Amino acid sequence: MTDDEGARRSSAPLRIGLFADGDFSDPRTNSGVAAGILGGLRAQPDVDVVFAESTAPTRLQKILLRALTIRLPVARWKSASRQNSLARRWRSRARDAVLTRNPDSVDTIVHVRNVYEPAAVPYAAFIDSTFEMAGAWRPWRVSARAREAEERYLRGADEVFTAGRAARESVIADYGVDPTRTFAVGGGANLLPSEEPHRDASADAPLRVLFVGLDLERKGGDVVIEAVRRCRAAGVAVEVTMVGHDGPAGEGITWAGPIWDRAELARLYAVHDVLAHPARHEPYGLVVLEGMGFGLPAVVSDVGSLPDIVDDGSTGLVCHVDAVEEFSEAITLLAENTQMRREMGERASQRARTEHTWDAVARRLTASLREARERAAPSRERTAGRAAATRRATGDRLAMTGYYFANTAVLGLAALLLIPALVLAASPDHWAQIAIGQAVGAVFGILVGMGWTTVGAGLIANVSPTDAAEEYLFSLYARVVLFALVSPVVVFATLLATMNGGVDAVLAALQIALTGIGPGWYFIGRGQPRQWLLMDTVPRAAGSLVAMAIAFTTGSVTAAIGATIVALLVGTALSTLLIARTGESRAVRWRAGFGPRPFAARLRRQSPLIASGLVFSALMVLPLALVNVLLPSLVASFALLDKIQRQAATAISPIVQIAQYALARGDLSDFPARLRAVGFRYFGVTALISVAFVVAGPLLVRLLGAGQIEVPFSAILATAAVIAFTQFEQFATRAMLGNLGILAPIPWMSALGALIGLGLLVPAGSAFGVTGVLSAIALGLLAASIGDVVAYRVATRDRFAVRN
Predict the structure, then answer these.
(1) Which domain of life is it from (predicted)?
(2) CATH number assigned to the domain covering 207-355
């Protein structure tokens, strides 16, 4: 860059784009930080704020995030939904969409709080805390994946701005960010009086203490109450107003509840004498700045940046965290020394109104940004580094996807290879009874899973390793208990469905039902497909190989199925040992509450998921049961083809999940366009799989049926149609309707498809054999899919109408 070019760039306004997780005009967005930074930057004469955009999730996305991150208490739930990896991706996609619409319009962008994926343009991060710092407060602990994403984000930034020195030190020490790119620029008070405050300090009036905080425990509200109680017990005239919560009435304590009206909050600042903020964890402390701006000396704890904000002995007093006696003595000192209190308040007001304003923050921030703009080459190098990091992250995601497919493929292949061994060891008819037993077991496997196998991954995706391990261990306890309770029912149902099919059918049913206690959902939720493969999938696949050897060498079907049960238990045991070693000091603190009442409570919480899974599984079992009772001559051939199409559906399931995610991201206004693009690719893959089955189907049937089960080519075609229409129906319900929250029509459309398919099954089977049976099922699935499409069109007719 020449000197003339450098001069022109130095004199040109600094073009900045801002992103925050909410509306910049809303003072509640990021606790007012977003509005403060925007106002401060706009006040700078050499800055052009090109855009200030929200990257907050849509309403549907918020619902999905809340569903995936259920926590108690509610405050922790809200925080977890923002730190979810899916929320981070959606924020980043929204940002990237804005940058695509505004190419080359800014010199840099600034992310206000939260974590994003690295951007393809120069960017800065403004934060008041890090995940490493937040880990000191247990409810705010995040997963290792979230911590890694934050490090990738901070290391890729051109500049990292922190509100306080504590956060800057964490960014440098814990994340390895270059100190020359990291700046503590302070924070600004969001509420200041219009003129210099004047407060009459009467020695006779009681000291009026103010506490402001929604999170009573984290902000130390209990410390304030106890300190005031001790002061009053010692004869000190003191009263406290607690803002943010309601509580029991007490002598000298007034509970004001949450206050969102800024004018009312300003009135409270104006009529009190001291601000108490004995926080146990505090990212920065904007409320302290507000109190200081109104002339209130602050009594604070020594955590985070609070000692930087409050000059001990000059603008307030700093006490050790949780030291109730120190806080009591500090309040007493201010109550008994009105002159000291007045002078502290004046100095606090002066400091807040000069050093801690958003204009001052913006001046410090823009000075660093302008300096960074002059370092064009280093910026480009970091951009290249960010691109490389993004490519590596993409490679990691592809590797993880490969592991997920590997788990599905290994288990599916092992199950398919076991079929011919069992057919040869027994007979086609006897194997058909075993297949019916497996179908019955699948229904009870859903029940035993208690919903954890459906949504458990989302529950633990963004909690600490210890909390995730505890959730798994409790679920294992609950699922084992439930398996023991339902086992007699499984036996009875299998004997009834197979017309006394014998011990082998019962063992097969119990083996499939036992999969409900498996650990797969845990490894999916923690993003550990490799551990899932090694600790659970490989032992189970090895068990299937051992079962094949037993069946071929001894002819004992009972021993072969027993080997698969042992392998399943070994995989679960190995996985549990690995999971139990995670968390604090590699030891999980088992929570109390493993008795009948907590178990019943968990069962009630999971009951809607259990019910929906049971209905779906029952509908999948009924065709095989009807064929066994009403069309017994077709049961062997139908059971084989039914087993193949089920395995095909399992193999395709990762593609369904990818399509579901691809449709979920981005703004809803673009949903129809994404639906067309994703649907085209999805159905292309499904069509290829169906065509591949038509080509390879005859050979596959001969191999899996050990040459003892004959099926016509027309049945191969019908099975390919079942595979295709099953994926059509899954896409319509999970990706199309599910992503839009259109859930009400789904059970009705499924019921319609079931009525059509089951109604045609027997007459079609009687007329056209196994081809007719499969064709009836395909027609039922097609009818349900068409119904889903009609429901989508009706529900979205106005939502996505073309606007001229």
Answers:
(1) Bacteria
(2) 3.40.50.2000
